Amino acid sequence: MEKTQTVKIQYLDPLETYTAHIQKNGSAWIGWIPEVPEVKCEESSRQKLLKTLENELHAVLKAEWEAWCEQFEKDVKAGKLDHLGEKALEDLRAGRCKDL
Fold first, then answer.
1. Per-residue DSSP letters for the chain?
2. Rounded CA separation 78/4 (Å)
3. Contact 21/8 with Cβ under 8 angstroms?
4. What does pTM read for this prediction?
5. Cα(94)–Cα(40) distance, rounded to whole angstroms?
6. Spatial contact of 43 and 52, defined as CB atoms under 8 Å apart
7. What pLDDT digit, counting tens, does each position of 14-54 carry?
8. Is the dihedral of CA 55, 56, 61, 66 positive or negative?
9. How far apart are the first and last CA of the chain?
10. Residues above pLDDT 70, as percent of the chain
């Protein structure tokens, strides 16, 4: 097994950059992204591995975002966030807000 290399992978914009760790293992390449443990891949070439890591990263992050949105909608419908709106209105009426 060769030394581990690090490669930057961007997600949607340059501010969201993840570090992929890749390594040649015999005739195959393996890779993973520590910040997103679900992303682990193996491919026959370095180029294929990087593309697969990028695709897997996007798929996992998209799924996480969709799950977060779904949970948020459920919480809104269940009234779990109503107290935040009430607190904001209270602060506004008490003059604790600034115009932007």
1. -PPPEEEEEEESEEEEEEEEEEEEETTEEEEE-TTSTT-EEEESSHHHHHHHHHHHHHHHHHHHHHHHHHHHHHHHHTTTTHHHHHHHHHHHHTT-----
2. 48
3. no
4. 0.78
5. 52
6. yes
7. 788 999 999 999 999 999 999 999 999 999 999 999 999 99
8. positive
9. 56
10. 100
